Structures are given as structure tokens and as C-alpha cells.
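Reviewer comment 2.1 asked that we show a complete input and output for one of the modelled complexes. We chose the zinc ion case, as it is the one discussed in the main text.
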Amino acid sequence: MRRIGTIAFLIVAVLIALGARHGAWGEEAGAPKAAGATCDRAAFGLVLDVGHTAQVPGAKSARGALEFDFNLRLAKLIEQQLIEAGFAKTVLLVTEGPALAGLARRVARANAAHADLLLSIHHDSVPDSMLEKWDYNGEPHIFSDRFKGHSLFVSYENRDRKDSLRFARLLGLALKSRGLQYTPHYTDKIMGHRRRELIDAEAGVYRFDRLVVLKYPQMPAVLLEAGSIINRDEELLMGTPEHQAVIAAAVVEAAEGFCRERKPVKPDRIARPDAGAKAKLRPAAVRGPAGNAIKR
Ligand SMILES: [Zn+2]
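Response of the prediction step:
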């Protein structure tokens, strides 16, 4: 396991270095935007990362569906709405393969896309200790109705912590304005080592420094747990196109706000090939916030 971790870490480090060599995804061009400037949607690069892979599909829902399928469906709808809204440079990032290698690949591809922002789409579960059993369609399944709601995560070790937080806040507020409530349970003692610091209590933003997909991208990065699919009611809700459209509309609004205020990256902050090189790729860091991604 340690050997695999070391190899994966080396792959991540090399790919990040390769990605970083390309420089600053175009932000060096052009003068700083004036206050009140409008968003140049066509020039704004947004990478939509579909959480997990078909081979290692993340959490299982209360009715046995795969998190990867929920992530892919929602991310595709968000992509469609962004493109319809004029964000023509939106890139849907679908990764294949085992978890660790998949993570290395997704970070490298996000960096190579020279995007302004990365949003990783996930659906939540709970730690194994909270799972209960039930039968659905005559088959045994697991569930937990204890928590529901979305949550947002950022890493303070991302090279652009401030803008990661800024987009997470914009998205949290856009979801809130549509009547959606974030889940507060990540601050709960019961979450043990998966407990997270709530850094924006109004918008529902938590801090998760070691998460690979947030830490290593060379751009602001945010992870959205769109809702809990281990919760029996919320699983059904997350499956409806109407609810997915509400989330997608919130993402479009947040992207617009973020793009409008986006400041060009300063040259001295561009291309740090050694970024994150001292960190270790630990198994905990490749799981989702609930720590359940790899096992199932
Ligand atoms: Zn996930």
C-alpha cells in the first residue's frame, strides 16, 4: 500500500510539474479587470471534474446505485447549462481507472486545461458505523437517513486559497438562495477523524486541506457534495431532473459572479512545479469527505 502510495505520489508530482510548465493558462495576457467589469464568459475556463471513475465508482446509494453515475449525470447537466449560458470553454473531466492513478490523471488534465476554476462533483454518504440495513425491491441494501443536504470543501493548501474560498462561498449562497440547506454534520463529534472545520457558516463551506483534487490543481478548486445518496429520501430527490437543474443553475450563477470579479494571477504566483512536492498522498486524502470512496 505504501509502495502504491509512493508511486502515485511520484506520478502526481511529475504530472503537476508537466502541467505547470505550460504557465498560467492565459491569465498573463490582458490588463487587470476594472471593478464592476463584466464576465467574459467565452474566455473563462471551468473544469467540471466528475468524481470517481467507472471502475472505482465511489459511494453506493440507499438503493444500490453508484455515486459515479450520479456525479456524471449532474456534471453533464451543469456542463450543458454553462455552455448554454455562454461558458464555451467548460471542460467535462471524466477519469478512468483505479482511484490513485485516476486522481493523478485528473489533476494533470485539469492543470493542462489551463482553466480558471475547477469544480469537482460528488454525492455524499456516511461513515460505515452509521449504516443501517433495509430491503428494497426484495434485495438487502444499506442506508442512513440521519443526514441530508449538500456541502462544499476547499483546501487551504491550494495555491489559490482565497479564490477557492470565494467561489465556494458564491456557490453556497447561490444554493441557499434557491432554498437548499447545507448539512452541518461535518462539525459533529460523531464524524471522528472525518470531522471538518466549517469555515463559512453562512454558505456551508468546510476546510479539507489534504484532498488531492483540491490541493494539487494549479487553479482555485472546490468540491461539491451535491447531496446524500445514502439518505433514502434525498437519493430520490437527487435523481430528479428538476432538482439537478436547480443545482446547475446555482453553479452558473456562481461561475458568473466568480468570473466577473476574477483578478489575473500575478506572475510570481505562476507555475510552481514543486507545489505540493513535500506532501504525501495518503489514502485518507483520496477518499471523499465522508471517507467512504475507495472501499465501495
Ligand atoms: Zn465522492
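The pocket of zinc ion is lined by residues 51-52, 58-59, 67, 122, 288, 293 (CB under 6 Å). We note this here for comparison with the apo prediction described in Section 3.2.
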